């Protein structure tokens, strides 16, 4: 496959010129470090408050933070390895690539689950407590991870089926495209991803229409409009997440034109379609959610904002308001 040719010959054609994108690499590492810091702070905030650990939307949000952080670390490792043409054993490479593939599907599915949770909370508020239980949360997470594993496991099994056993003992520059040795593997993977993407888009459109319809007839207009904005942001985030599957097809034409243009395009795709969509989750739920933002700010400032009383008042008010409903 052409992506394999790219990875195998990149060192021969660009080893001298790789000093030029050094600034780009440093910039990417700064973005990744900032992203991981914010995510770790939000995970810490989630773990510190029992109230967050009891609500479905915060549990899904925490899963998104964990998955995105692990995905970002592994993707950055692959980027650095490809940049410096560092070779590793094939078996660890397959494990890393499979994990990256699982997490790349898990994030969009979790976004869809978060949209469905908002649909139940806004359109069926009286049934929300009965539907959003610990049992349904466990079942939902199990479904998300099961579906996320289908495509990576299929890719892994197909790779092992067409690869000689001796190849597993070799060393290679690790890349996700390494597992797509045959055209039919890439085509089958693309078909499954397209089907999954269409299904997720249909669900999000359905949720948006239902919330929009409920917003017109409901008394709590502000809550509904905020729910609509959340769904729209999730749809945009989902679009960026799915676009990362198309980046190899965007990059290949530039490989034929100029190698350094190809390298620049790959860095741009990494920032726009990998870093950017995974940075939206903290924005959507970490900063726009009043309860979470108060606790987050308190921990970010190491408790120096004297906002603990305000946090408790806000959380108690929301808990009392929820019980009244």
UniProtKB/TrEMBL annotation:
GO terms for molecular function: G protein-coupled receptor activity; odorant binding; olfactory receptor activity. Keywords: Membrane, Transmembrane, Transmembrane helix. The chain crosses the membrane at residues 26-47, 59-80, 86-119, 140-162, 188-209, 230-250, 270-287. One of its GO terms (cellular component) is membrane. It comes from the Eukaryota. Residues 38-285 form the G-protein coupled receptors family 1 profile domain. Gene3D superfamilies: Rhodopsin 7-helix transmembrane proteins. It is found in: Membrane. This is G-protein coupled receptors family 1 profile domain-containing protein. The lineage of its organism: Eukaryota, Metazoa, Chordata, Craniata, Vertebrata.
């Amino acid at each position: 496959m052409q992506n394999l040719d790219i990875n195998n010959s990149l060192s021969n054609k660009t080893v001298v010129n790789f000093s030029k994108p050094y600034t780009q690499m440093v910039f990417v590492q700064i973005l990744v470090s900032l992203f991981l810091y914010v995510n770790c702070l939000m995970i810490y905030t989630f773990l510190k408050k029992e109230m967050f650990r009891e609500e479905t939307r915060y549990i899904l949000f925490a899963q998104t933070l964990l998955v995105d952080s692990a995905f970002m670390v592994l993707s950055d490792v692959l980027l650095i390895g490809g940049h410096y043409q560092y070779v590793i054993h094939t078996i660890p490479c397959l494990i890393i690539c499979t994990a990256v593939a699982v997490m790349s599907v898990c994030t969009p599915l979790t976004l869809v689950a978060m949209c469905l949770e908002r649909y139940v909370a806004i359109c069926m508020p009286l049934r929300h407590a009965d539907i959003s239980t610990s049992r349904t949360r466990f079942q939902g997470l199990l479904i998300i991870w099961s579906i996320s594993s289908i495509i990576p496991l299929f890719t892994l099994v197909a790779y092992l089926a067409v690869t000689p056993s001796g190849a597993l003992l070799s060393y290679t520059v690790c890349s996700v495209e390494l597992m797509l040795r045959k055209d039919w593997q890439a085509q089958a993977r693309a078909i499954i991803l397209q089907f999954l993407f269409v299904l997720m888009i249909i669900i999000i459109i359905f949720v948006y229409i239902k919330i929009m319809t409920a917003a017109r007839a409901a008394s709590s207009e502000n809550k509904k409009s905020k729910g609509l904005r959340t769904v729209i942001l999730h749809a945009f985030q989902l679009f960026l997440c799915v676009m990362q599957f198309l980046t190899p097809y965007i990059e290949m034409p530039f490989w034929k034109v100029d190698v350094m243009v190809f390298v620049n395009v790959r860095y741009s795709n990494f920032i726009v379609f990998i870093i950017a969509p995974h940075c939206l989750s903290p924005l959507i739920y970490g900063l726009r959610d009043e309860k979470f933002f108060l606790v987050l700010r308190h921990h970010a400032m190491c408790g120096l904002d004297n906002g603990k009383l305000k946090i408790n008042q806000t959380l108690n008010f929301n808990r009392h308001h929820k019980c009244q409903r």
